[in-house]
Amino acid sequence: MSAQHVITTPPLEPTQELPDGSGGAGKSASRPTGGRPRSTKETLRLGNVITTLVLSVGAIVMIAPLAWTFSTSLKTKDGVFALPPQWIPDPFVWENYARIWTAGPLLSGIQNSLIVACSVTIVGSLTSALAAFAFAKMRMPFKNVLFLGLLSGS
């Protein structure tokens, strides 16, 4: 048979009984108080607003310690330990940044940190690339166990 059979049902009238048991004249549980169903656009807009609010609160929580550190770096010694603490220092002490270069071996500390960070990154990347190639191409017993051990250890 090449003909397709399409089953159609007539639309429900407002006075007819709906399949969920509620009458056609009453409001359905899935409808908001306005009496009309929420559109997809409204649902997406509400989701975007909630997502934006949550991300904004998270951004404030992440940035607040950095702002506090910067604010504290511009305070006098007495201003650092003042109670109640002040977010905006009075007066601004920009000389703290000039003094830090002469107070200690800051430049050698930065140089040592860069040497260690770069060498660890390069060695780790090369080692991981070789291990990834070995796990992808070689057939060996207990390969999955070794791979899971490598992943859990790093």
Task: Give the arrangement of secondary structure elements.
Layout: H1 40-73, H2 77-80, H3 95-103, H4 106-137, H5 143-153
* Class inferred from helices and paired strands: mainly alpha
Number of strands: 0
Average pLDDT: 82
Number of H/I helices: 5
Biggest β-sheet strands, sense, barrel: none
Order of helices and strands: HHHHH
> Roughly how many Å apart are the termini?
62 Å
Oligomeric state of this protein: single chain
What proportion of the residues is helical, as a percent range? 55-70%
What gyration radius follows from the Cα positions, in whole Å?
33 Å
| Uncertain runs | none
User: Globular, elongated, flat, extended or rod-shaped: what is the shape?
Assistant: flat
Quote the beta fraction: under 5%
How many domains comprise the coordinates? 2
Looking at this protein, list some descriptive labels.
mainly alpha; 2 domains; 58% helix
